[in-house]
Amino acid sequence: MKLVETDSPHGDEEVAEVPRPPRPERRRVYVSLAVTMTVLAATVLAVYLLAPKRDNELLNAALEAHREGGPYELDHPSATELSAWSVGVVGHKVPWPERTGLEVIGTRRLQILKRSAALVRYELGADEITLLVLRARDAPPRRYHRTEGPELAVSWRRGPWTFVVVGPADHAGAWRRQFGAP
């Protein structure tokens, strides 16, 4: 027994070709480009909307810690205690400023961007100044200045260290010289 499909042409029957409109030559390229640009724009927009801005995170943390004050891990440490504490916090000996006219009020460890930073609160005359020290990761030297209300924050690099000092903006000349801030 032989099966024959009824819809297919048999023998000398001709099938009329179905006319189709002409296709633009570059339609597939334009569609691919449009999809790629849409995905790229959506990715960039999502990163800017969902990821927090981390510019000057050290300055933000130093200003916040300066406003907080205590409690401290060490109260009024000596120079030897401060040096030993800083080795325990950041892993190396930190070049702290000379103590002429400065009295250390207290020290505290901070976590900034998943890294340990040493915070020391000094007293210079009637002013309280906060110094934050972090081992630098990036290569280029960077300097930042920010004034927020009555406080001035200055960030600079010295060798492998990033320093941030926060104090009253009115007396900035005195404490900037004392800490070697630019």
H/E series: HHEHEEEEEEH
Amino- and carboxy-terminal Cα gap: 101 Å
Share of helix, binned:
25-40%
Number of H- or I-type helical stretches: 4
Rg measurement, Å: 33 Å
- Please identify the structural class as seen in this structure: alpha+beta
Structural features, described:
- The chain has a domain at 57-179: Phosphorylase Kinase, domain 1 (2-Layer Sandwich), CATH 3.30.200.
- Strands 1-2-3-4-7-6-5 form a 7-stranded antiparallel beta sheet, sandwiched between helices.
- The chain has helices spanning 27-50, 57-68, 79-90, 172-179, and strands at residues 74-75, 103-112, 115-124, 127-135, 144-148, 151-158, 161-168.
- The radius of gyration is 33 Å and the shape is rod-shaped.
- With 182 residues, it is an alpha+beta fold.
- Helix content is 31%, strand content 29%.
- The protein contains 4 helices and 7 strands.
What labels describe this entry?
alpha+beta, Phosphorylase Kinase, domain 1, seven-stranded antiparallel β-sheet, rod-shaped, 182 residues, 29% strand
Fold topology:
Layout: H1 27-50, H2 57-68, E1 74-75, H3 79-90, E2 103-112, E3 115-124, E4 127-135, E5 144-148, E6 151-158, E7 161-168, H4 172-179
Antiparallel strand pairs: 1-2, 2-3, 3-4, 4-7, 5-6, 6-7
